[in-house]
Amino acid sequence: MCALSMFLVGVDTTIVNVALPAIGRGLGTDTRGLEWAVDAYTVVLAGLLIASGALADRFGRRRVFRIGLVLFGAASLACAFAPSLGFLIAARAVQGAGASMLSPVALAIVVSAMPDPRERARAIGIWASVFGLSMAAGPVAGGALIGAFGWRSVFWINAPVVAAALVLVALFVPESRGQRARPIDLPGQVLLILALSASVGVLIEAPRLGRTSPWVLAGCAAAVAAAAGFAAVERRRAEPLMDLALFRRPPFAAAVLGAAAVFTALTATLLLGTFHLQHGLGRTPLAAGLATLPMALGATVCAPRAGRMAGRSGPRRPLLLAGAFTAAGGLCGAAVGLGGGSGVLPLLAANLLAGIGFGFANAPLTNTAVGGLPPSRAGVAGAITSTARQVGSAVGIAVAGGLVADAAPAALAGASRPGWLLVAGCGLVLLLAARASRAAAAPRA
């Protein structure tokens, strides 16, 4: 069930990426509107992950999990019927709220069911490899569905998965609750979503409005004020939404930054590759989906290996490999269009290397975040790391989309180059996380 929930959330991220050009044509919107359609999902998902975990501890994990599945499925159907961009964005936000009730519950089950560090590391590696499978299924299935039935079918595909998950939950998942229910931090929750929304809005709209536009400056001020207010509120609460004291541990802070970096690289790679193939070269959605198979293969093969490596010798070695491969993938992507030709081979190489980097990164980052913490704090640490992943996804879409939004097909490779260099920079961040992971404390009671 943990793996199925991860598969559902992952497929919905990747399947929409390859569908963006078709959605734009169908709804008559530009690239920046499409960015909002993607980031409405990731921002709400990021903002509600921790609160959803607290709700599950209070009201029951199976109950919240089922509510999340129903909400996710209903919102998927609403996306399929969307008559306009605004309706699609709203439905995607509701979809993100449903998805937020799936991931934290799944991670809590994995961590509590696997108390042995090595066994838990292997289990998280398998869990992470399922995301690699979702990466393969998402773009390829999305490309095939769009070619056969149109872009709306990418949302219909969620219905049978949700139906199967609801049946399996009813049959196999017992109800459970946290040992002590945490109170809901409503002020912190509101300020967190405001800070994330304002930050992503600035990243999306600044290239169009100009960095000195009054709207952009107001957005920056709102993001800073909300972030400062969030920090002030969290420091005063006895049981905050986000335990900021965890960031005093260098391994934890590095793991959170690394989680954001690896998902920034992942989503930027997917979007830049999709737009190069469909807008720049005129390839079909199916061809764009098939081009992501090297990424999916690298992630699927390397994720369980990274879990075994982390369980056997710690997270440093797989994180070093993750950083090196991610940086190499970004440099390969930056070479697209430099040597003439279509640039498909450098793009395939970039997808493979980025997928290998992603596969090696996910499990050791999670283990670094929760390592050295007592069980009572491990769930919160995992939820913060999951939030960082979704923030990274939103940033990757916003930055990469802003770079290619107004580029003509012939100029797309050059416009994408800063985005590929950002991917390479994310690899360097992972190398720093590997260095910090050596300072991970021993488990405490």
From TrEMBL:
Keyword Membrane carried by entry: yes
Pfam families in the cross-refs: MFS_1 (PF07690)
Predominant location category: membrane
Membrane spanning residue stretches: 37-56, 68-90, 96-114, 126-149, 155-174, 186-204, 216-233, 254-275, 287-307, 319-338, 344-370, 391-412, 418-436
Highest rank taxon of the organism: Bacteria
InterPro entries: EmrB-like (IPR004638), MFS (IPR011701), MFS_dom (IPR020846), MFS_trans_sf (IPR036259), Sugar_transporter_CS (IPR005829)
Compartment list: Cell membrane
Keywords assigned by UniProt, alphabetized: Antibiotic resistance, Cell membrane, Membrane, Transmembrane, Transmembrane helix, Transport
Major facilitator superfamily (MFS) profile domain location: 1-442
Membrane topology, as annotated: Multi-pass membrane protein
NCBIfam families cross-referenced by the UniProt entry: efflux_EmrB (TIGR00711)
Similarity comment text for this entry: Belongs to the major facilitator superfamily. EmrB family.
Full protein name: MFS transporter
Annotated source species: Streptomyces toxytricini
Lineage: Bacteria, Bacillati, Actinomycetota, Actinomycetes, Kitasatosporales
